[in-house]
């Protein structure tokens, strides 16, 4: 009986299967990733400026000084003082200075008060005194002389 045999063949239609994953890189977009800077055109900025200044300073010199002479001994980190190793130093505690002439002004004097003020300003350049702290005696510092005056022979006198 040939009619009892039936041959069944499955039929698979291609549109029911999912598409495979894409293996190629994505296509390039020529406008992607480009930064475009826009603005006005460039131009030259030029400023015309002119400036001028001058200063005049008087020369100052030291006329004399008052010093203390001290002997400084070597002191170890442990605090021991080595009397065989020392340095003699002069420490100033007062210095007399004398300045140069006061700067002159090209502006004419208008009144007696202004003239007097300029004379006071000129005297401010003449002489002054600077004071410093006196040296103190310590474990490794021995004072040899106090308040010795040293005169500068090269200083100018008025």
What is shown here, in short?
This protein has 158 residues and is mainly β.
Outline the fold blueprint.
Layout: E1 61-75, E2 81-98, H1 112-123, E3 127-131, E4 141-151
Antiparallel strand pairs: 1-2, 1-4, 2-3
Cα(first) to Cα(last) distance is 154 Å
Q: Whole-number average pLDDT?
A: 81
Strand order of the largest sheet: 3-2-1-4
- By DSSP (H or I, 4+ residues per run), the number of helices equals 1
What does it look like?
A hairpin with a 5-residue loop joins strand 1 and strand 2. By secondary structure, the chain is mainly beta. The protein has one helix at residues 112-123, and strands spanning 61-75, 81-98, 127-131, 141-151. The chain has one helix and four strands. The longest helix has 12 residues, at 112-123. A four-stranded antiparallel sheet has the order 3-2-1-4, with no helix packed on it. It is elongated. It has a domain at 61-102 and 110-151. The model has no long low-confidence stretch (mean pLDDT 81).
Record keyword descriptors for this entry.
1 helix, 8% helix
